[in-house]
Amino acid sequence: MPRVETVCKVKDLPPGSMQRFEVGGRAVLLINLGGEMHAVGAECIHGNASLDEGGIEGGEIVCPLHMGRFAIKTGKATGRPPILPLPRYKVWIRGEDVLVDAGEALL
Question: Which domain range does residue 101 map to?
Answer without folding.
Answer: 4-106
